[in-house]
Design a protein that fits this description.
Strand order of the largest sheet: 6-5-4-7-8-9
Structural class: alpha/beta
CATH superfamily of the largest domain: Glycerate kinase, MOFRL-like N-terminal domain
Number of strands: 15
Radius of gyration: 23 Å
Number of domains: 2
CATH architecture of the largest domain: 3-Layer(aba) Sandwich
Largest sheet: 6 strands, parallel
CATH topology of the largest domain: Rossmann fold
Amino acid sequence: MLRRAAKLAFEKAITAANPASAVHTQLVFSDNILSINYHNNSKSIQKRTADWKNVYVVSFGKAAVEMALAAVEIIPSDLLAGKPTVITNYENSRVQPSLDIYTSSHPIPDECGVFASNIVAKKIKSAKRGDLVLVLVSGGASALLPFPAEGLSLNDKIATTELLLASGANINEINTVRKHLSRLKGGQIASLASPADLHGMILSDVIGDDLSAVASGPTVPDPTTFRDAWNILCQRNILTKVPKPIVCHLEKGINFAIPDTPKSSDSIFNTVTNSLVGSNAISLSAVQNNLLDNGFTVHVIDSALVGEARAAAEKFPISQRSHSAPGRYAYIAGGETTVTLNGSGKGGRNQELALALACYMEHENVTYDWVFLSGGTDGIDGPTDAAGGCVDSGTLDRIRGAELNPHDLLNNNDAYHALQAAGDLIKIGATGTNVADIQIFLVQKKST
C-alpha cells in the first residue's frame, strides 16, 4: 500500500525531530560538571563548560515543553535558577509540575504571549556574570514570543503579520520584519543576558538552517536591518496598508534615531554560543532511509522547497513518461512553501500543495499507481486542525462525489474542505516538534 508507506515515512520524519532526544545529545552532566557538546560550523565537536553558579532555562516554540523537560532531567535542581520558563502554543501545552508553562497563539500572536514574553525578559535580565542562560528555541517562537518595541502595540504587529502572511511573504521575510518590531528577536535576548554566559539550542524549522532566521534569531547576531524590513513591505506592496506606528518605527530605525538589532561585531556575543539540535534536513534523511529500506528507488527533488505551493506541485515528476520502467519510486522534498491568498477558503500550504498536485495529475492519464503526501512536522497546517493532505488517483472523484468542484475549491484557497470531502486530510494532532514540511510522492509502475 503506497498510502501506508507514505504515512510511515512521514512518521519517521517526525520521530527524527524528537526535541527531547535532541537536547540529550548535547547537554551533559557528569562528574558534577555541566557541559554542552555541540558541532560548530566546521562540524568539529565543541565543548563548553564552566563553574556556573546558576542556570536559567527559558524555552519557547512548539517543541518548548519537550526540550525543557529534557533539560530538567539533566541539570541538577540545585543548579537551576528556579523552574524553566516555557512558552508554547495552546495545542502543545500540558501540565508539568517541574515547568512554569505559559501559552500563546500561533501563527497570529496574542496578549498572552506579550505577558509571557515580559516574564521571560525579566528572568533573563536577572542572570549575572558567572551564570548560564540556556535558551531552548524551536519553530513557531516568532509568534509565540511577541514583545512589541516601544511605541508599538500588539495589534500593530498582528495587523502587519496578517498582511505579510496574506501577501505570500516567505518565513525569512516575515522574520526580518518582526525582528525590527520586537524587543527580544534578532539577537536582543543575547543583549538582555549579557554579561552572563548564554547558549542557545535551536531546533530549526527554517530551510537552510540559518540560525538568525529560526524564531527570528533571538540569541544570534542579526544580519538584517531596518532598511531590509522597509524594503520587504514595499516589495510585497503592503507598506501603505500597515499601521502608521509601524511605518514611523521603521523610519526611526532607518534614520538611526533608534538602535538597530545587535550585529556580529557586538561584544555581547563574546559570551554567546549557539548550536543546531534538529532540522528539516535531518528529518528528510530519515524519510529517505525508511523508503530505501522498503524497496523504493529514492530521489530527492528539493531539500529547500519554497515558493508558491501550487507551483511547487509541478516540481514533482508527474508525467507518464517519467516512469517507464517497472518498480517502486519515491520522490521526496523538504521545505516550506507559501500561499498567496486570493480566495476566502480554509486550508494551509500543505493542503493546497496536495490538492494542486492531484489536479495536475488528472490531466496526465497515467497508468501507474501513485500517492502524494505533504505535511507539516508540527502536525498543524495553517489555521486548521490538519497537518496536511495525502492524495491519490481517486481524490478528485471522491471530492466530486460530495458534489464539490475541486478546481473551484483550489482557486478559492479552500483545500481543507476539498480534502475533507475526499477523506484525505492528515490529522495527527500537535506533535510537540517543528522542522517545517515534508513532501513524499510515491509511484509504483505496474509490471507488464
